[in-house]
Amino acid sequence: MFSKVKSLCGLVLSFNNLSVIIEPNMTKRYGQLGLGSCNLESFPKSLRGQDDLFMLDLSCNKISGRVPEWFLNVSIERMGYLNLSSNFLTSFGQGPITFKWTNLNILDLGFNQLQGSLPIPHPQIWYYYISNNRLSGEILPVICNLTLIQIIDLSNNNLTGVLPRCLSNLSGSLEVMSLQSNGFNGEIPQLNGDHCAFLMLDLSYNEFMGPLPRSLLKCKNLEFLNFGNNQIRDIFPSWLGSLLSLKVLVLRQNRFHGSVEELTYGFAFPKLHIIDLSRNNLSGGLPSRYFKQWIAMKVFETNLSSYMGDANLLVWALSSLNTFDYSMRVIAKGIQMNYSKIQGDLTLIDLSSNNFNGTIPKTIGSLRNLRLLNLSNNILASPLPPFLANLTILEALDISQNQLSGEIPQELTQLTSLAVFNVSYNHLIGPIPQSRQFDTFENNSYKGNSGLCGTPLSRKCGYLKASPPSSPTSQEDQDSGSAVELDWKVVCMGYASGLIDEFIPTLEAQGPPVTTIQEQPFCTMTLLHIPN
User: Strands across the sheet with 281-285, in order?
Assistant: First the structure.
């Protein structure tokens, strides 16, 4: 139908619900041909004569098997954009493949079943996507010839070996490099040259060792840095705090050790939205001064883009502007969550599974824009602080497996967005708050605290000992400077004969009363105060 339109030079039918039939003897030549999601099961043979193609989209079809050899010669001199992603392609033939398209700027081969070694495009390439395949072997030094490369995504393959040191020569043009979920090892190369264009660097889920390269300090525009799940041995890189554009820092499950040293001058990490230092061997107190400096976690920003990354990298495709979104895996709300896109307003602190000790600093209560907080599996030993109620939009709070003591502050019921609350395996005592979000939390949130009582636990609250008042209770005491200390006892007044006579004498004994009264009918709670 369209082949009869003589002046038509661009035909884009992608992403509808069409089944396109292409006649094998089609002679009409196109500059742009978009056939994505058109139920194609093979490469249209009529593409053989398409020497004027600048843009070709065959993504999201059902094309399977080996790419035919003739296709690698289609529009060699003109092809600028080629998208074969989300099919079932298995290979381009035997041995290392070097594509012949001399003007190819954008190549997307992601989400196929490609095996063998990494195909190498022509040095003119800008954006090279080949993630989520089955590629194996090492990255050959020939990749360093891609001197104009801006985005390279090799994530989720089976690539191995040491990164070529010459790869760091590309840092002057390279804005995004994602090598996550492969088998790379060895040390991370230092960046050469004085200029670094990186906005996003993801080397997570590999086997990298050694310290972090200090040359990252050259990357003044770096927004996203993920070295999680490697074998990096280093102290906390406080020097990264001088990268004023950094929004995401993930160092989880490595071998970072020692205390989290803080910069003694200026502001550190002022734009930080996400920090994940979990599953390391960090020690000492929590970084209270950093909490004071993380401005992006304090102030609600009104001009955030929908997803991180989409405001910075604009990729021309299909006559529209597409984006490259940052992605990551974190433990959030008790489960591993895969963020294929990261919302611009997501804020997260995960310091779990380390050896942090001491108290929870009050400065953490100033991070009013925080949504997820995980301090679990450390050695924190202090009462659960009521100032956590200042985190008004908090959605998940996990402080389990520490040595926290005291009662659960009633102020925490003000956290009306809280969907996950876990204080299990601490030394908490007293009644569990009974209102708002706390009515939705189950037993697992509180287990391992033998002193807690009340719903949802089966242990009912009987005799309770509340914390002493923090200041005198009357104006007279305050004016006179009286230092009278009051020991508050809770007495259950019931109608049962002899109940009071049996209970009151215990108040005169040293230490707390030994009589515990539970579930008495028509029971009224009365507070008796007796000077120590």
Answer: 115-116, 134-137, 158-162, 183-187, 207-210, 231-235, 255-259, 281-285, 355-358, 379-380
Q: What integer is the mean pLDDT of 49-60?
A: 93
Given a contact cutoff of 8 angstroms between Cβ atoms, the answer to whether 104 and 78 are in contact is no
- Residue 465 and residue 282: Cα distance in Å, rounded? 36
Is the backbone of residue 531 left (phi > 0), alpha (psi -120 to 50) or beta?
A: beta
Q: How far apart are the first and last CA of the chain?
A: 97
pLDDT of residue 29: 86
The single-letter code of the amino acid at 372 is: L
Cα distance between residue 433 and residue 387, in whole Å: 16
Distance, CA of 170 to CA of 186 (rounded, Å): 19
Cα 295 versus chain centre, distance: 19
Q: Residue 300: which CATH number?
A: 3.80.10.10
Instruction: Clarify whether residues 208 and 319 are in a common domain.
Output: yes
For the chain, give the number of residues: 532
Tokens of 220: 């003044």
d(CA 142, CA 99) in angstroms, rounded, equals 13
**pLDDT band at 53, cuts 50/70/90?**
very high
Q: What is the pLDDT of residues 254-313, one digit of tens each?
A: 999 999 987 666 678 999 999 999 999 999 999 998 998 899 898 866 555 576 665 444
User: Which residue intervals of 231-331 are DSSP H helices?
Assistant: 288-293
Q: Tens digit of pLDDT for each residue in 294-309?
A: 998 988 665 555 766 6
Residue 523 pLDDT exceeds 50: no
Rounded CA-CA distance 394/420 in Å is 9
Which of 8, 9, 3 shows the shortest CA–CA distance to 31? 9
Which CA distances in Å does 468 have to 463, 471, 483? 16, 9, 13
User: Could you say which of 70, 102, 137 is where a domain stops?
Assistant: 137
Whether 157 maps to a domain, the answer reads yes
210 membership: H or E segment, kind and range: strand 207-210
Q: How far apart are CA 136 and CA 1, in angstroms?
A: 43
Backbone angles phi, psi at 178, to 5 degrees: -120, 115
Q: Which domain holds residue 499?
A: 485-531
Q: Is residue 364 left, alpha or beta, with left meaning phi > 0 and alpha meaning psi from -120 to 50?
A: alpha
Neighbouring residues of 507: CB distance < 8 A, sequence distance ≥ 6 = 489, 491, 513, 528, 530
3-state secondary structure of 129: strand
Residues 309 and 353 in one domain: yes
DSSP assignment letter at 156: S
